[in-house]
Amino acid sequence: DIQMTQSPSSLSASVGDRITITCRASQSIGTSLNWYQQKPGKGPILLIFAASTLQSGVPSRFSGSGSGTDFTLTISSLQPEDFATYYCQESFHTLIFTFGPGTKVDIK
Amino acid sequence: QLQLQESGPGLVKPSETLSLSCTVSGGSIRSSSFYWGWVRQPPGRGLEWIGSVYYSGSAYYNSALQSRVAISPDTSNNRFSLRLSSVTAADTAVYYCARINYNYLYYFDLWGQGTLVTVSS
Predict the structure, then answer these.
(1) What secondary structure does DSSP assign to chain B, as a single string?
(2) A79, B3, B59, B76: which is deepest, by most CB within 10 A?
(3) What is the pLDDT tens value at each position of chain A, 108 positions in all?
(4) Shortest CB distance from A50 goes to which of B60, B104, B114?
């Protein structure tokens, strides 16, 4: 099974900051990597699929990059509504999924 | 706008079977474009994929749960269901249903609001 890790597990930032979250896969997965945002008490929201493709309706301050085993999610200018937990998820094997453990972004 | 809504008992006794349904509105589960899935989240923890199903009935399961889980479509009622047998306290979680879309790869693009299931006697 593919294992996913994320770093950091949490971070504190201020509105306007640029932040980067890293996700690492235990084996090469090409660009089969998705990112989700989850706020307390809500279901996750898809932000980015295929490592770098922005889902329709997602603000352009979100971007993703990477391939192989190392991926990043960047928020270029953190907004108040962006304080949430972010999960990566691999889709390398057809219809078999693994989520990363999550990165919580809170207000400094 | 397609919506998903989970339903089922909020309390299940240990060793019994957890049963949940996900009703889809604003679209059909018979669409050839989508799969449908279940994901759970224990309190204060991360997301765990449980399994996925196509309207034809073909299904894929998390290997850690495969011996206890079954997901099936109910096209007559435009819903799909989850059954998890022999539950323990470790199965206490918020259970989400979601639509699985495909564009180069599979991803969960629409989610239900989730339903909390507690396993306790």
Answers:
(1) --EEEEES-SEE-TTS-EEEEEEEESS-TT-TT-EEEEEEE-TTS--EEEEEE-TTS-EEE-TTTTTTEEEEEEGGGTEEEEEE-S--GGG-EEEEEEEEEEESEEEEEEE---EEEEE--
(2) B59
(3) 999 999 999 999 999 999 999 999 999 999 999 999 999 999 999 999 999 999 999 999 999 999 999 999 999 999 999 999 999 999 998 899 999 999 999 988
(4) B104
